[in-house]
Design goal:
Strand order of the largest sheet: 1-2-3-4-5-6-7-8
Bound molecules: 3-methyl-2-oxobutanoic acid
CATH class of the largest domain: Alpha Beta
Distance between the termini: 32 Å
Shape: globular
Largest sheet: 8 strands, parallel, barrel
Radius of gyration: 20 Å
Number of strands: 8
CATH architecture of the largest domain: Alpha-Beta Barrel
Structural class: alpha/beta
Strand content: 5-15%
Number of helices: 12
Helix content: 40-55%
CATH topology of the largest domain: TIM Barrel
């Protein structure tokens, strides 16, 4: 069966599937994607959801953090992925400064990501402080995914990319933040770089699924950045990543082989001529 035929047999994932998967004890698979080919690969591979993460600032656009990513950039990339995501549920990140000014601003951004980008849900970072924004977006009919623990948009406040929940005070803060996100109406929550025991406690205490990234095995699902898991950039991945491919090397070798063939006169061959 071809990849395309296989995808026709995949059931379209919708928001109500996520709590259902948790209830049934089935692990949830989420992967990031940033354009049509990466979206297609994720969709055809059967991911439950695709996240157009603002990590695209670093892994697709070469910025040093997620902070320079704008709503326009997110819409542009989400729209490309939406043309590929036929089965997976499509979630778009709300970028830095696009939802913390007021719940009205948050709703406006979420509305644009859905209407212009084709997203089916949005994700935003924070706990109690973003609960009114989550409630407003959900009330308008747009599903929201929360994100607590390490929040890359607050890297300057965290003072770097560090594991969260290593002392009693932050454990309490994380539990409160995750509960606030659930109470505000989010359908799931990402736990990023959270101590595995704390992530297990949060997972047991919530009825919505937790999606871990560097948060251990007890979360209801896992998300990884596609470029990390597929090796799309040179260099070693962080500890919490398992590498399943060497895409950068494959691209590098392909271009090297092309260059060699052009320079030696081996390309184009007769079979490549009209
Ligand atoms: O931006 C992103 O890719 C994310 C994931 C790391 C969860 O938020």
């Amino acid at each position: 069966m071809s990849l395309e035929q296989q995808s026709k047999h995949q059931r379209k994932r919708r928001v109500h599937h996520f709590p259902m998967l948790k209830q049934r004890g089935k692990k949830i698979v989420i992967v990031t994607a940033y354009d049509y080919p990466t979206g297609l690969a994720a969709d055809l591979a059967g991911a439950d959801a695709i996240l157009v993460g603002d990590s695209l600032g670093m892994v697709a656009l070469g910025f040093g953090s997620t902070i320079p990513v704008t709503v326009e950039i997110m819409i542009h990339h989400t729209a490309a992925v939406s043309r590929a995501a036929k089965s997976a549920f499509l979630i778009a990140d709300m970028p830095f400064m696009s939802y913390k000014i007021s719940p009205e601003q948050a709703l406006q951004t979420a509305g644009r990501l859905v209407q212009e980008g084709g997203a089916e849900a949005v994700k935003l970072e924070g706990g109690e402080e973003v609960a009114p924004a989550i409630a407003k977006i959900v009330a308008a009919g747009i599903p929201v995914m929360g994100h607590v623990g390490l929040m890359p948009q607050s890297v300057h406040r965290h003072g770097g990319y560090r594991v969260q929940g290593r002392d009693e005070e932050t454990v309490g803060e994380l539990l409160t933040a995750a509960k606030a996100v659930e109470d505000a109406g989010a359908f799931s929550v990402v736990l990023e770089a959270v101590d595995p025991e704390v992530a297990a406690r949060i997972t047991a205490s919530l009825s919505i699924p937790t999606i871990g990234i560097g948060a251990g095995r007890q979360c209801d699902g896992q998300v990884l950045v596609l470029s990390d898991l597929a090796g799309m950039l040179p260099g070693d991945p962080p500890k919490f990543v398992r590498r399943y491919g060497t895409v950068f090397e494959a691209l590098h070798h392909a271009v090297q082989a092309f260059a060699q063939d052009v320079r030696s006169g081996a390309f184009p061959g007769e079979e490549n001529e009209y």
